[in-house]
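1st attempt posting a full record on here, be nice pls
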Amino acid sequence: MSGTEAEALAELAAREAIRQQLHNYCRAMDRRDDELGYAVWHEDGTADYGAAVFRGSGRDFVDQVSRNHLRRLAHSHQIATVGIEVRGERAVSESYVTVRLRTAVAGGFTEEFYAGRYLDRWSRRDGRWAIDHRVWVLDFDEQDRPVTARLPGGGSRDTADPSYELFRGLRAGI
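the predicted structure (as tokens):
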């Protein structure tokens, strides 16, 4: 394999590792899987969601979201339109994000909707890609909108969700 091919393969592997971490983040938030969420950031990684929301360590942000989700009935995070640039052991990404949060209120449900972007700086340390710093850019939102909703069915907001059994089965060779 030529040097150019090896570099292209390394960049492709970096992009996929970063993309997987972005997916891990959504899974961690929706399943309230704090350990998975912590692993998305480096130990000294930081998050800036604005002064009114959160500024601090990635780990503390995961803890705050996990506590916040306890008062929710359901939540869903999606990431799309991911742009990634890699330079050796460093990278940056912009990811478009949508978040929906459902809350039970007297007489029904309300929903919060957020559309924005994650602007992430990444680095590869000890063979692992993780976030050094994240900035949340809110493009628009809707707050406390009354919704007609069915209660979620079949899933759970923790590691008892059926998806965990699916992945454990593959690892166990089932």
